[in-house]
Design a protein that fits this description.
The protein is α/β, with parallel strands linked by helices. It has 2 helices and 5 strands; from the N terminus they run E-E-H-E-E-E-H.
């Protein structure tokens, strides 16, 4: 069954999936399913934890960059999407 991501953000020619989590941890099943499809390796989680960039991997084996953004930075997704897409695996 295909899951749904909470939001998507269109940046230039890519669509970045965004998950909003109520705590500092949680399952990212829908984000993993989404990130397995596009050619780019970028995803964002807005959550109750600290700012950090993680190099991670989906259960199917695709490597990607997950930007963990605290709630208070949620209004700055556009700026951080630009920053994220300039990072490399």
């Amino acid at each position: 069954m295909l899951q749904e991501v909470d939001l998507i953000y269109a940046y230039k020619k890519i669509v970045i999936p965004i998950e909003i989590k109520s705590g500092s941890t949680g399952s990212l099943r829908s984000l993993h399913q989404f990130i397995d499809i596009p050619a780019h390796p970028f995803a964002i989680r807005v959550y109750g934890g600290e700012f950090k960039l993680e190099k991670t991997i989906t259960p199917s084996g695709k490597s990607y960059l997950l930007l963990n953004l605290p709630y208070y930075l949620g209004t700055r997704i556009a700026e951080y999407a630009e920053w994220l897409t300039n990072q490399s695996l």
